[in-house]
Design goal:
By secondary structure, the protein is mainly β. It has one helix at residues 39-42, and strands at residues 13-17, 22-25, 34-37, 48-54, 69-77, 79-84, 87-92, 96-99, 105-109, 115-123. It contains one helix and ten strands; from the N terminus they run βββαβββββββ. It binds zinc ion.
Length: 144
Amino acid sequence: MSKPNHYNMNEVKIINDGEKFAHVSVGKLNGFDGKLFVKEAAGSTSCEISFGTLPAGVSVPFFHSHKENEENYIILSGAGRFQVNEDVFEISEGSVIRVSTGCDRNLKCTSTEPMTYICIQAKEGSLGGYTMTDANITERENML
Ligand code: ZN
């Protein structure tokens, strides 16, 4: 089967890099194949973020588990099935699946359209304050 004309093997590109931020892009989400990891390009210190796409009927070719990191999978488009050890369940656009350390996981696209997802990997139990228990509202000139 030939690839559609819009097919493009994306790569992670650094768009802007400041002293206090990094802006990277994996490009159009409907235009890539496989998996892209952004931690290195973004210089992230608290988590690894990857973008993944699975074509119709395809699963990740292996199960894996993590020793210290929890993973949160966010399904952006498409639908499929997710397996954690012996538990199997349906997932679709908008699903968020948290997977603990020390268990096997895999996912498969069962929709006709590709399933695109983000996986955020961070040390299990590492989150202290968050949202309003960590954020301060600050005074800053709006230059947008
Ligand atoms: Zn993983």
